[in-house]
């Protein structure tokens, strides 16, 4: 019989949902053979008590663990070797093995083969989600057949089947989910299987939090299918003995069962705001992800244009929460990031100059000078590690910013961003759009396709509807540029079949109140950015110069963030609160209608929210959702810059930042190019 990964009843910190920290704790317990190790304060654990072991993972669970545990941390937990399940492995008879894999028939068969080969001394089997009964029986049969039943220590359902990319961002790492959920040629069984995978991932998220959320979603469609199935599974777990949800535990645990304390889980489909998956960004994290293809918090930078340069100059950088520059500038407008790189470099040079001044020797014959010199040398040596670490971060972000500026220059990304923002605000310039779409216009075929789809979406009905001649010219320009127009054809077909797309577009053009990104001195920002560009490339970036002022003034709130904020406020005049379905596994079963007093006049607001997008998300949408936690007085997303910005922001926001917490998740994190590839696949399936 499988066991649930045991979790201590967590204190639900109002400062944050702490999803990543909780998952990391679960992984650490798993690495320690599912025993919580407690070392008395002030004592070091004796090395001889450490159990040395091997870690065996499949590809998916390798991705789960990669952002959470570094190689040196594995060693601290006694893991001397980590191997892939499907790779050929040699027997190591005197060492136990910790397996961390998905519960699939293939993985169960592979583990049974390991039993038969007698690879390890003991087997600690951990599945990322619940192991179905038939697979458990197959596993038991395999162990008995190989005479290895006595070597199987325990079998655990860990419920950690998701990837935590940041404290407030997670992904289910489900590839091509948008295609699976929107393929009109798919069989019902295929769609149901895709929905079941989403439910399984979200159940893991809820189990890791140790909380039963209140589920809100638009009525109808795949989002409500997921909500209904998730509510059923949560209800089964809540009603079961030994529930893994701490807010259902006994009196000895912290119980936050009231509706205002429990998080809400807001589920949306990607089609709720299609534009957010397509548009270009102008802030740091979305740019790094979209342009430099960040994967599992790692980005690869290729320096040099020749093949030889590329081979010699490829560098990989980790972008984690322990990077102070990344943490402080993750949502900053890119011109401000360039400023901060320069500012931090200048501060570093000043600190080095002060160290050099401290180490200048006085009169060596003087005892007083000798003592002073010694003190200065000790102080200088003590400051060097911190300065070296600081320089490492500066070099990293200088190289990343340089690479981003190269793409901005070559592809004219500032023009794409500005045009898309205007289109989504109802102002687009047809001539400018067609100019970029021409084969002579800057940008990759995918850049042009993304712009064309947004143009078509914002001109799909009403007085601004495209004429047949305009539509033909749009497709012709795309084909001439080498772009695959199948994605555009699919979106246009979807617009004709589903008139709600027009409402989605309207949602996407809502104006943001809490994201004023204009700086106090936009002209100064422009000047500094151009100076920085000149030093990097030997010439100014006229394309950047043309667009910086308008880019710094963008204040649009994305549709998913706007709907989530309305659901969290839970106010009586909110359309979302009144119309969205409500599912609560801890309340009496309903047909999706909220119970009396849950919504409207006198109903409490919600301080914690999980936002989930089916069909793919991105860092631009995560950034817009993150702004909710900052509150209405948080200022622009581009204002949070500098090493000390977090502390300044906390002081400025007062109690708002100590209460609200929001985490954003999706079936997978997609770049714009990856998303249009999925749209293209659907277009080809439907004959475009």
Would you kindly provide a written description of the structure presented here, covering whatever features stand out?
- α8 links the parallel β9 (214-217) and β10.
- α4 packs parallel to α5 (133-145) and α18 (486-497) packs across α27.
- The protein has 688 residues and is α/β, with parallel strands linked by helices.
- It is built from 27 helices and 15 strands.
- 49% of the residues lie in helices and 12% in strands.
- The longest helix is centred in the middle third of the chain and has 45 residues, at 367-411.
Proportion of strand residues: 5-15%
Radius of gyration: 27 Å
- Give the spatial strand order of the biggest sheet: 7-8-15-14-10-9-13
Give the mean pLDDT.
Answer: 81
How would you sum up the global shape?
globular
Pairing-aware structural class of the strands and helices? alpha/beta
Which residues sit in consecutive blocks of at least 5 with pLDDT less than 50? 8-15, 38-48, 247-257, 499-506, 508-553, 632-658
Largest sheet: 7 strands, mixed
Question: What's the helical proportion of residues?
Answer: 40-55%
* Distance between the first and last residues' Cα: 50 Å
DSSP helical segment count: 27
What's the total number of strands?
15
């Amino acid at each position: 019989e499988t066991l649930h990964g045991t979790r201590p009843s967590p204190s639900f910190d109002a400062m944050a949902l702490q999803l990543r920290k909780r998952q990391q704790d679960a992984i650490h317990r798993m690495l320690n053979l599912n025993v919580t190790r407690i070392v008395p304060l002030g004592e070091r654990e004796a090395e001889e008590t450490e159990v040395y072991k091997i870690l065996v993972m499949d590809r998916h669970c390798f991705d789960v663990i990669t952002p959470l545990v570094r190689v040196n941390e594995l060693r601290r937990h006694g893991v001397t070797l980590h191997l892939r399940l499907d790779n050929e492995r040699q027997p190591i008879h005197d060492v136990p093995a910790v397996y961390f894999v998905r519960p699939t028939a293939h993985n169960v068969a592979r583990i049974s083969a390991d039993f038969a080969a007698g690879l390890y001394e003991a087997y600690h089997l951990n599945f990322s989600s619940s192991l179905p009964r038939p697979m458990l029986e197959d596993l038991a049969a395999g162990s008995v057949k190989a005479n290895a039943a006595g070597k199987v220590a325990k079998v655990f359902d860990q419920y950690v089947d998701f990837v935590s990319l940041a404290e407030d961002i997670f992904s289910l790492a489900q590839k091509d989910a948008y295609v699976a959920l929107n393929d009109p040629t798919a069989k019902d069984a295929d769609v149901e299987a895709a929905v079941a995978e989403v439910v399984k991932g979200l159940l893991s998220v809820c189990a890791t939090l140790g909380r039963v959320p209140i589920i809100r979603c638009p009525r109808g469609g795949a989002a409500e299918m997921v909500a209904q199935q998730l509510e059923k599974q949560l209800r089964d777990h809540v009603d079961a003995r030994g529930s893994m949800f701490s807010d259902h535990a006994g009196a000895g645990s912290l119980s936050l069962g009231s509706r205002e304390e429990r998080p809400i889980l807001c589920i949306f489909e990607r089609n709720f705001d299609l534009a957010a998956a397509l548009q270009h960004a102008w802030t740091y994290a979305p740019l790094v992800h979209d342009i430099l293809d960040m994967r599992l918090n790692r980005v690869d930078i290729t320096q040099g244009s020749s093949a030889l340069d590329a081979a010699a100059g490829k560098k990989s950088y980790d972008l984690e929460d322990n990077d102070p520059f990344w943490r402080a500038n993750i949502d900053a407008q890119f011109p401000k990031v360039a400023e901060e790189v320069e500012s931090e470099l200048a501060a570093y040079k000043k600190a080095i100059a002060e160290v050099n001044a401290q180490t200048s020797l006085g009169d060596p014959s003087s005892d007083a000078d000798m003592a002073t010199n010694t003190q200065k040398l000790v102080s200088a040596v003590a400051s060097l590690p911190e300065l070296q670490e600081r320089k490492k971060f500066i070099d990293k972000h200088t190289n990343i910013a340089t690479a981003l500026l190269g793409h901005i220059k070559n592809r004219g990304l500032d023009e794409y961003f500005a045009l898309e923002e205007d289109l989504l605000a109802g102002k687009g310039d047809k001539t400018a759009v067609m100019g970029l779409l021409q084969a002579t216009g800057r940008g990759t075929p995918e850049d042009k396709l993304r712009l064309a789809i947004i143009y078509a979406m914002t001109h799909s009905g009403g007085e601004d509807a495209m004429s047949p001649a305009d539509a033909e010219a749009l497709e012709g320009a795309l084909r001439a540029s080498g772009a695959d127009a199948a994605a555009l054809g699919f979106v246009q077909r979807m617009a004709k079949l589903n008139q709600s797309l027009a409402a989605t577009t309207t949602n996407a053009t809502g104006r943001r109140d809490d994201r004023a990104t204009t700086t106090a001195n936009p002209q100064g920002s422009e000047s500094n950015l151009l100076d920085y560009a000149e030093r990097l490339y030997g010439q100014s970036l006229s394309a950047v110069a043309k667009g910086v002022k308008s880019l710094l003034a963008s204040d649009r709130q994305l549709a998913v963030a706007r709907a989530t904020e309305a659901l969290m406020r839970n106010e009586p005049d909110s359309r979302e609160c009144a119309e969205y379905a409500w599912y609560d596994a801890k309340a009496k079963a309903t047909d999706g209608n909220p119970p009396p007093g849950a919504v409207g006049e006198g109903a409490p607001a919600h301080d914690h929210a999980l936002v989930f997008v089916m069909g793919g998300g991105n860092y631009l949408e995560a950034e817009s959702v993150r702004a909710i936690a900052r509150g209405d007085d948080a200022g622009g997303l581009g204002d949070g810059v500098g090493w000390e910005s977090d502390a300044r922001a906390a002081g400025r926001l007062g109690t708002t930042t100590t209460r609200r917490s929001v985490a954003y998740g999706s079936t997978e994190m997609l770049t714009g190019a990856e998303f249009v590839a999925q749209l293209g696949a659907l277009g080809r399936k439907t004959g475009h």
